[in-house]
Amino acid sequence: MRALFLFVALLWGLSSLAAERCGTWVPTEKVRLGAVHLAYQSIGRPGDPALLLVMGLGGQMIHWPDEVVTRLCAQGFRVIRFDNRDVGLSSWARTPPAANLAYQALRHRLGLSVSAPYSLRDMAGDALALMNALGVRQFHVLGASMGGMIAQHLAGLAPDRVQSLTLIMTSSGAQGLPEPSDELLALLARREAPSRAVALQQQADLLAALGSPAIDDDRAQLLQQAEIAYERAFNPEGVQRQLLAILAEPSRVELLRRLHVPTLVVHGTADPLLPAMHGVHVAAHIQGSELKLIPGLAHRFQDAFKEPLLAAVLPHLRAHRQGGQWAQL
Questions:
Q1: DSSP-assigned letters across all residues of 229-273
Q2: What is the pLDDT of residues 220-241, one digit of tens each?
């Protein structure tokens, strides 16, 4: 009985230590990287293997759920999350998007060139410059949606530094893959709002449309999530510029074929924005990659799918963390 008590006490102590060092309450820092400055958080011990989280279109670093960040850190990672340029507390471009979004979207569908103020490769350069500024030589990358596209470029820019890739609900950008509905694209691009109240309703509409049909969303909760993001930062023109960067991107198939990094591709079977074939296509073009499809997952980190996502992602990260060693709590 005494041995059992000591064992339980030890586990409790280890859990407490992990919770203390993995708290997401750490301050948000800013670093200037040439003409761009990025806001970021570093969660966990500086000496632990670094895991960089790259968020998707219009998403702020707070859209990585705190409990997910904590679980990742508890595996022995130093988790770094940041706001991409043009969202959150990072740099916003000073001029409005020069291109008409609807016109450029039509050009994209027709396979014509699209103009954008910056590229996804530029955004990958931002992420790499952040790791340089933090003195991190090698690191793991987990990207979601547009963040997964940026992560692909990041692995191409620094093949000797990216130790593993985890790509969630993302795409290769190749022509011919299934496209979202016009209605969903309209919601995604509809960022102008005459008032705060209208902006929150629009964001709640978008969140609902990106969710799984198997989940009955609580409208009040969606509005609360929209309000938190709005109060932190609201930059609809920045989201349009990010969307132009996606539309201007050519197919990344040749880039994917050049990657030789341990890669996990995770996609949902109910994704309305990037249907499952996008994930299948990514995995098919990265040598040695692993594909995991999650039934019912759509294009949001909904509570019901956090555990299935972690169950898919954690074994991959464990396997490539310092030669497969377990976390030292």
A1: HHHH---HHHHHHHHHHHHT----HHHHHH--S-EEEEEETT-SS
A2: 999 999 999 999 999 988 998 9
- Distance of alpha carbon 48 from alpha carbon 21, whole angstroms: 11
Q: What is the DSSP string of 40-100?
A: EEEES-TTSPEEEEE--TT--GGGS-HHHHHHHHHTT-EEEEEPPTTSTTS---SS---S-
> Is pLDDT at 165 greater than 90 in this prediction?
yes
Task: Supply 317's token pair.
Answer: 């990260």
At a CB cut-off of 8 Å and minimum separation 6, what does 318 contact? Answer: 75, 324, 326
Q: CA 230, CA 222: separation in Å to the nearest integer? A: 12
Strands 50-54, 36-43: pairing is unpaired
Counting Cα atoms < 13 Å in the Cβ hemisphere of 292 gives 17
For the record, the structure tokens of 110 come out as: 């027709």
Cα gap 11→276, rounded to integer Å? 40
- Burial label for 151, CB within 10 Å (0-12, 13-18, 19+), is buried
Which DSSP symbol is given to 291?
E
Residue type, 122: D
* Cα–chain center distance at 326: 24
pLDDT in tens, 14-70: 455 566 789 999 999 999 999 999 999 999 999 999 999 999 999 999 999 999 999
Among 303, 304, 297, CA closest to 266: 297
Distances from the Cα of 247 to the Cα of 89, 146, 217, angstroms: 24, 11, 30
pTM: 0.91
CA triple 322-64-178, angle to 5 deg = 95
